[in-house]
Amino acid sequence: MKAFWKILKRYVAPYKGYVGGSVVLNILSAVFNVFSFSLLIPILQILFNISETQYEFIPWHRGMPFNEISNNAYYYVSQFIADYGQSRVLLALCLIFIAIVAIKVACYFGAAAVMVPIRTGVVRDLRMEIYRKILALPLGFFSQERKGDIIARISGDVQEVETSITSTIEMLIKNPILIVIYLFVLFRMSWQLTLFVIVFAPLMILVISATGRRLKADSAEAQKYWSDTMSQVEETLGGLRVVKAFRAERRMESRFGEVTESMRRKNNQVAVRQASAHPVSEFLGSAMIAIVLWFGGTLILGEHAVIDAPSFMAYMAILYSIIQPIKDLSKAAYGIPKGLASMERIDAILQAENNIREAADPKPLPEFRESIRFNGVRFRYDDGREVLHGIDLEIPKGKTVAIVGASGAGKSTLVDLIPRFYDPAEGSITIDGTDIRDVRLNDLRALMGNVNQDPILFNDTLFNNIAFGKQDATQEEVEAAARIAGAHEFILEKEEGYRTGIGDRGVKLSGGQRQRISIARAILKNPPILILDEATASLDTESERSVQEALEKLMQNRTTIAIAHRLSTIRNADEIIVLDDGRIVERGKHEELLAKGGYYRKLHDMQAL
Predict the structure, then answer these.
(1) Where is 127: in which H helix or E strand?
(2) Of 87, 253, 257, 518, which is most buried, counting CB atoms within 10 Å of its CB?
(3) 384 φ/ψ sector (left φ>0, alpha ψ -120 to 50, else beta)
(4) Three-class DSSP category at 503
């Protein structure tokens, strides 16, 4: 339960005002409920015609035992009956009973209503915290995690927390209040009978807690299967073209069927255990009622009766009312472990370490004036595999430097170090002599614009995709950027122009159109440093030509670092850096490298074939 209270402290604390309102309303609801049951005693007195008994008034005093309070209540009822008759007194008592119940129900509704903002607010806050953490984590984290698993945690696991934890907050506020107040009244009515009842409570708690511990383990495994399911759905949607091309529908269906069947079996176990909460608590509660009836009967029927029949019936009514809060607490004991299992999976994201840390005292980096330098840079992944080995490189301002090499040579890793998507294991990268680890990430990345091989577009309008990097962009600025990128004409051909939605990842556009939108986005940001990651590699010849023209306009008067597979696109680069197995093996201009007849010449001749 320690983990559960930590969750409440983290997420419920901002809503303590609502919690206070719920506590007050639940106390009022319990008090009026006791009053309504107390009215049963004089009502039963009249119905059972016990009013013939003579009662003498006992002066009120603090700490009066219940039998003296009952005596005075009977005294007043007998007086009213003598003055107004049994029928009128019975009618008056019933009307008072209805009024008290109405107030009780109103308080009960109010207590439930004020809990709604807590439940919805906690879920919103939790999802926002996960989303902010996703945005803050470095790219290295996501290379080790499946997207489908992360989606499952922000959807299914958060939903489980709402169902299993936040929904129990109301029970944990209301039920202890009801139990304490009811127990207090029951002790005042008959401490012997109440003490006898309390003996059986630990038995119920032990049975419920034992099942709850097992339920948490089963729930964690069930949520893992849910993540596997979401991951397979995400993979299938992303690779549907390949699935169909290789006629692998049945194979994918079989894979999906295996994981969903495993999830079904585990969910069956969880559901059966959770479903046992009600019958187990129902049985234990009914057994307790039966035993109390027997024991209470001995107290009434004995020679020295400590409680009369009407009071005993009122006692049983209150006792039966206390059973429902105990049942609700048992449901919470079953539900909370499921939510804690999901919370552990969520915390795997929330507690993930971000090794890209901001400097404690960041240095200013208002502009790019001189050069970018790599000084003995080495990089290795978490598994210890080293990708870059002692890179020394200078990229002067205003120059175009191309990075070439075979797949796996370390080109993308080298470029990803500049905006600090990763940090080097050894060495340093400086801009104008300042280590990039000593400046704000926001200031560093404000100097850079990216155009990737696979343009990253969002399910939004053309206007918003171009203006993505500049929130206050005007229509004129967006159109100017689109003209330079060669996108203005095809945008105007769309029915809604710049307000046209482009679908998921720009599916409604061609490859060349998507890339020109990506270029227009970079043009609008107008960064001094431009990073091109194989920007034309996935385009056909005609699209490549038009996109290359747009890129040349974008590269004017900028420092450009370009990763290229097609060597024809970087012929005019000021310097070409040739990587092989994470090392710089050659560097120079296009003609110089060809003349050397080395590794670059080999790459060039292979493409010429």
Answers:
(1) helix 116-136
(2) 518
(3) left
(4) coil
Q: Over the stretch 518-560, which tens digit does the pLDDT of each residue have?
A: 888 888 888 888 888 876 665 666 666 767 777 777 777 788 8
242 burial class (0-12, 13-18, 19+ CB within 10 angstroms)?
A: exposed
Stretch (H or E) spanning 24: helix 16-38
Q: Measure the CA–CA gap between 581 and 407, rounded to whole angstroms.
A: 9
Q: What SS3 string covers 26-82? A: HHHHHHHHHHHHHCHHHHHHHHCCCCCCCCCCCCCCCCCCHHHHHHHHHHHHHHHHH
Residue 597 φ/ψ region, left for φ over 0, alpha for ψ in the -120 to 50 degree band, beta for the rest: left
In this structure, what token pair is assigned to residue 491?
Answer: 């945008």
Q: Are 316 and 292 in contact (CB under 8 A)?
A: yes
Give the pair of three-digit tokens for residue 144.
Answer: 């080790």
Owner of token pair 């993540």: 227
CA distances from 606 to 271, 406, 601 (A): 61, 11, 9
Are 9 and 84 in contact, with CB atoms under 8 Å apart? Answer: no
Q: Would you state the structure tokens that stand for residue 423, as one six-digit string?
A: 């940090």
How do beta strands 426-431 and 371-380 pair? antiparallel
- Beta partners for residue 377, in sequence order: 391
Long-range contacts of 132-135, Cβ-Cβ distance < 8 Å, separation of 24 or more: 133/349, 133/350, 133/352, 134/349
Is the Cα dihedral 311, 316, 322, 324 positive or negative?
Answer: negative
Given this model, what pLDDT does residue 218 score? 61
Cβ–Cβ under 8 Å, residues 339 and 212:
no
**Separation between Cα atoms, residue 59 and residue 80, nearest integer Å:** 18
Report the pLDDT value the prediction gives residue 374, as an integer from 0 to 100.
93
List, for residues 201-244, the tens digit of each pLDDT value.
566 556 655 555 555 556 666 666 766 777 777 677 666 666 76
Q: Residues near 84 by Cβ (< 8 Å), separated by ≥ 6? A: 92
Q: Which residue has the higher pLDDT, 66 or 336?
A: 336
DSSP string, 522-533: HHHH--SEEEEE
